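Step 1: inspect the first sequence and its tokens.
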Amino acid sequence: QMALVGDFDSKAVQTQLTRLLGEWKAPKNYQRIAQRLKRDLQPLDIKLATPDKAQAIFLAALPLAIKDDNPDYPALVLGNYMLGGGAINSRIANRLRQKEGLSYGASSQFAASAQDPVGQWSAMAIYAPQNMTRLETAFNEELVLVLKEGFTREEMQAAKTSWLQNQATSRSQDRELANRLSQNLFSNRTMAWYADLEANITALTEGEVLTTLRRYLDPNKLIRVKAGD
């Protein structure tokens, strides 16, 4: 880790690996196992009983057949950031926490593989068990509203500024930078990939984000899990 963060010294890294692993050799050559989405995934609605728990949790997930080099990837990144990835200031958090007062924490996430067409959009919220129906109704309404009307120009500009600032902050932290550098080595990329992603996100329009979200997100196909008392 220190070699990645500070002055990179390949001989020092090799020396450390030799000290840690000795003369151990893998019995077989490394071969990456490709990931694939299961073709017949169906929407599910699962309720799990967790007696005597003061809080409940709502989870929703939608597997997506997409890699991070797909032209739609930047729009999904920014769209998710406005939906629920932007900490407290996002559509899902604003609706469930600020407006309805139903959740102490609500968010969404989007991820896609660099190697295989495997990705996922997901959302979560914690809430008092007695508010389950109200919370899921509000979540459904907000997701449908976004897919119907999209985001405003002001939302888009604020989200772009916030997302870009978060990227810069991430790169300023040694741990995060080391992680990106190691991922780049595995994916055969350089930091230019992130520069291109930022440029593509900066250039996005409201219509492009809405069209892309409609193409990938279908509320009727979500896998939902509600665990509570």
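Step 2: inspect the second sequence and its tokens, then contrast the two.
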Amino acid sequence: MAGPHENLETAEHAEHAAHSNRKIALLIAVLALFLAFSETLGKSAQTSAITLNVTSNDLWAFFQAKTIRMTVLSTAAEQMQIEADRTTDADAKARLLKTIDTWKKTATRYNDEPETHEGRKQLSERAKEAEHQRDEALARYHNYEFASAAFQIGIVLASATIITGMLVLAWLSGALGIAGLAFSAFGLWAPHALDFLTHASH
């Protein structure tokens, strides 16, 4: 049988292990909380990127449609101008010139319509802005993906610490948690920061 001294040591080891396990459990809970945040933010960024991509595609399609209409009207006006120049009938010429003027004004409106923001110029600007916002959302999404991966691996290592008793795994888990927080911060405030670092290294 174990003596009182050995029983005391066993109890102390058990208490120490329980205390360590509580700390690891807390670490796992915190990493899981951060993981939930990064997953939610990542899904939101992904949805925004998809929506903005559809928006930019629609705007470019509208831009192309306006370009075709403007080209058709401009060509028709040029053809009618030739006909008007050949016409000797004053009334017919006046009607032709009026139609030409209407078509030219319409073609000009197709190109630039600041009132409705639906001219080619405005559509191009809106499409480029949507593309810029899409790229921002994609960059955020990638950062949140990296953050989620760091948190997930951290949780696995922290869980392994309880089984193996190797505290180095807990330290690695904490380091991954910090890395995950860094990626989350990049996603929130500087989505292209890592792109800049990549370009700077080349």
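Step 3: confirm your contrast with the notes below.
The chain is about 90% helix and 0% strand. The CA atoms of residues 50 and 134 lie 8 Å apart.
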